[in-house]
Each structure stands twice: as C-alpha cells, then as structure tokens.
Amino acid sequence: MRSFIIDGRVFRLDGREFRVLSGALHYFRVVPGHWRHRLRMLRAMGLNTVETYVPWNLHEPGPGRFTRVEELGAFLDAAAEEGLLAIVRPGPYICAEWDNGGLPAWLTARPGVRVRTSDPRYLAHVDRYLAEVIPRVAERQVTRGGNVIMVQVENEYGSFGTDRDYLRHLADRLTGHGVEVPLFTSDGPEDWYLTGGTLPGVPATVNFGSDPERAFATLREHRPGDPLFCMEFWCGWFDHWGQEHVTRDPEEAAATLERLLATGASVNVYMAHGGTSFGTWAGANRTGELHDGPYRPTVGSYDYDAPIDERGAPTAKFWLFREVLARHTGELPEVPPTPPALPPSSVPLTESVRLADSGLGAESTSPTPPSFEDLGMAHGLVRYRVEVPGPRGPRPLTVDGLRDRAHVSVDGEPVAVLERDGERPGLAVAGPATVELLVESMGRTNFGPRLGERKGVDGVLHGRQYLHGFSVTAYPLEDVSGVRFEPGTAAAPPAFFRGVLEAGEPADAFVALPGWGKGYVWVNGFCLGRYWERGPQRALYLPAPLLRAGGNEIVVLELDRVGGPAVEIRPEP
C-alpha cells in the first residue's frame, strides 16, 4: 500500500522525503488525443507531478445533467501511465481565466443564491457536483493504487471571502467522499489572503510569480509547521482582447524558479502547458484594485507564455526550466518531438448564408428583454426586436445594462455597434420605428466580486421611456450542423461561411482570418473559439485530432466585416 503524507515540514511518499515538482496542465484545455504528448513534455522538463483544475460548468451544463466527467479519470489514468503523480483542484470555484470561474451560469443566475458561501441553496448544488466528481478522484489516490497525492479545498478563497463554515463544509465533503490524501488551500502570500482563505488543520500553500523568499516568509508567519509549497508559480500570464500580448523573460523566470527551489520548497509551475480555452469557455476580468472596474474579456488562447507552448512545442523557457530542474532531479527523459504541422495554405469559402436565414434560432416573446440565462443559454447571440410607438419625434435611444456587445439597427438599417464600457454614440430615433439589437456575450468575469453576471441587456429606452414587447431570437451556437448554406459568398454579416480544408494526413495548424472583423470558427463541428481583429490573438489553434484525412468542414460566423473569400492555414500562431 502506497502512502503520501505530511510529516512536519516535509512530504513523504512511501515513507521517503519527497519534493513535489509539479506542472499545471488542464485536461479540458487539451484535446484527449494530445494528452500523452503533453504529459511526456512535463516529464521531460523535469517534473514528477501534474496538477489540474476541474471545471464545474463544463461537467454540469444543467442542474443534475452531467457530461464528460469521465475525462477527468481518463486524464489521471494517462498521467499515471506516463509516470506522473497528480494534484486535483476540483473547485467548486477555480478562477483559471475560465468562464465564470467554473461556476455554472444556470446557478449564478438564480436570484438570491450566494455563491462561495455557506448559503444552503448554493451548497445543495455544490454537494451534488462533488458527489459526482470526487469519488472518481478518490479511487485514484496513491493509497488505492493510483497517482493522486493532494486535493485542494476551493481556490484562492482568501481573495474573495472569510466564510470558514463554507470551507469546512467543503473539506468535510471531500473526506466524506473518500479523500484520504492531504487536503490543502492556496492563496496569495499576504496576511488578508492567508487569514481569510485557510482552515485550521488543512495545510496552506501560496501563489506568486516573484520574490519567493518574501512569499515563503509570510507563509511561515502564518503556518510555521507546514511544508513550503508554491501552488502556482506564475511563469507567464494571459491576454485580454484589445490589450498587449503579455510575455515574461525566460531567463528571469528561470532564475526565480531557481531561487524558489533553493528554499527547499515544492512547486507547481503555472502553467507548464496552458493549452486553449476552446469554444466560448474563456473568461474575463475587471480592472481596478477591487476588480470592479472596466470589463476585459480574455482571449481563447491560453498559451500563457508557458514553457510548453499552445501546440506543445518547447520554448526557450522550457529549456531553461529543464536545466534548473535537472540540478534538483538528475537525469531527465528525452524531449518528445513536437507533433507535425500542416503546410501553409488557403481555404476558399464557397458557401454562405445570413444569420437570419440560417435556420438556426429559437423565437419567443417577452414584455422585457430576457437575459441569456432566462433563455437557457450560457453564450451565443440573441436578437432583440422592439417597436418605438409613433408618430413621435426623435428621442435618444439608450441600451441599458449591455453585456457585452450589440449591433443596433433601425428599420433594418445598421446604425451602431455598442460595447459595454465603451463610448456610446448619440442615437436619436423617431417613431414609429423597429429597433433591433443583436447582442453577443463574451466571457463571464472569473475573479473578484463580479462573479455571476447575466448576459444580454436590461432594457431599451426611448428618451426616458422603457420600450416593451420584445420579439426574441436566441442563437446558442453550440451546434451549427443545421445551418442552411447556399452557394456563393455574397451574404452580408452577420453571416455564416463554409469551406473545405483538404488534409492528406491530420496535423496541427492555426486558422487565421486576415481582413475579417469578429466572429467564431468551427472545424468539423468543433468550435475553436472567437476571433477578433483587435488582437492580440491572431489565429486559432487547430489540433490534429480534430481533423481527418481528406475533406474537413470549416464554418465561420462573421459579425462585423468580411475579409477575403478564404481563411488561411498557418503552421505558427
């Protein structure tokens, strides 16, 4: 029988002192066909453990309706077969630059539910989720012949609240479902984090990207008897739409890792391999010290400037980290070759159809504009149509509570594109008139006090008067197989376009749309994510396992402006 315990200030694996050298790799940000390669890359960099979050909202898209939960167990099994131990961070909140921090939109939209607290209405759903997920983790603990050595209680709770009854409830549920390896919490290395987010008797870890000596000194002040562990060593960072691409100097990051390890601490490199927030799973942040300022949606690429880049290739940071880790571990496995990439090419888009004529969309009516959540949608598009009575003179048209972007037309003519936190053009409309808003949701805030926001609009005003009586068309965009395409590419946005990528053998690629505006891309029915001309992301990662030899369908939904009648296939992002 194997064991992993905390013995004073040290970890012991099967009785021997053990230093955890872990790397973050999220199974849900890597297609299963690439798991093995990425895990071998972690081993080759010098790591002995892999860490992953578990996204609640991915696995429970509706109350009591679970999906893809088996992927967690399959990933842990693959890691074990590749010789890696595992740390699991099941939430229920994970942050992770993931939509809503992993909390289901159907839950956070419920009136009166206080998430991340001991509110019984919230805990009832948490308990159902944990009962589904945790037994799969428990059966894979090292004590039962598996590879799981640690399980986290919530995530960075000290950055949010102080409800210790909530944390205790979670810890009790984890052990109640069979977790017998050490539990832990993780927070920033500051007094307010470590006094708000920790539990007596549960080891505390800290998250940081620099100054490891100061961070561990703070941890020692609060937990003098715990092992030193940086649960997130931020070796890179993530990007927001419309902002600069963020990088970190590889030599400086490697030097900080060396200083961290010189303290004798364990580490989890965040991210060792970031991967991709496919589809509409990328989250968002709010600026300001209190994280309640202007909204900043996150790009789909979670490359993170990590040592292993988005398509699994080693970077300069990888080789430097490998040198550092080798000094602490000895001889390392050979670095596996990077999967091949498709040669550059152009894929003509030969069919199209306007969104309104696509055959998608569910129609309804409502006196006030329903939110996306009211319509049973997490993300996508909603068209709101309302009448301005008349005859009446021109009055300002105001959209109240827009989340997140809207194309506005009056009597069928486009008049503006509005964005939350953006400048609002002066729109004056006389009645009678028909006003339409095509509203697009972006990522939900994943950190801070603004978790759980609804998508859509709160109201439309003509002057000081709210307009009522909405015709609503919802486009969830989860399945585009039913789009009714027609030959030609003359359709004006918002519109779908389709072409065929011929591939001799499946290989990795990046899909770019130079000259196009903003939209979404699907390959063989799988949504790669959003693109937007404002960058900094310029291409969408297309993993080889999504392709097949021969013809592959590419579908583009363009909202703003059509570029050339083709998309580009590139070997690099």
Secondary structure layout plus pairing:
Elements: E1 4-7, E2 10-13, E3 16-18, E4 21-25, H1 35-45, E5 49-53, H2 56-59, H3 70-81, E6 85-89, H4 105-108, H5 120-138, E7 148-152, H6 164-176, E8 183-187, H7 191-196, E9 204-208, H8 212-222, E10 229-234, H9 250-262, E11 266-273, E12 284-286, E13 295-297, H10 316-329, E14 345-354, E15 362-366, E16 381-400, E17 405-410, E18 413-419, E19 428-440, E20 459-462, E21 465-466, E22 470-475, E23 486-487, E24 495-503, E25 509-512, E26 518-523, E27 526-532, E28 540-542, E29 550-558, E30 566-570
Parallel strand pairs: 4-5, 4-11, 5-6, 6-7, 7-8, 8-9, 9-10, 10-11
Antiparallel strand pairs: 1-2, 2-3, 12-13, 14-23, 14-24, 14-30, 15-22, 16-19, 16-20, 16-22, 17-18, 17-19, 20-21, 24-29, 25-28, 25-30, 26-27, 26-29
Please provide a brief summary of the model.
The chain is an alpha+beta fold and 573 residues long. It has ten helices and 30 strands.
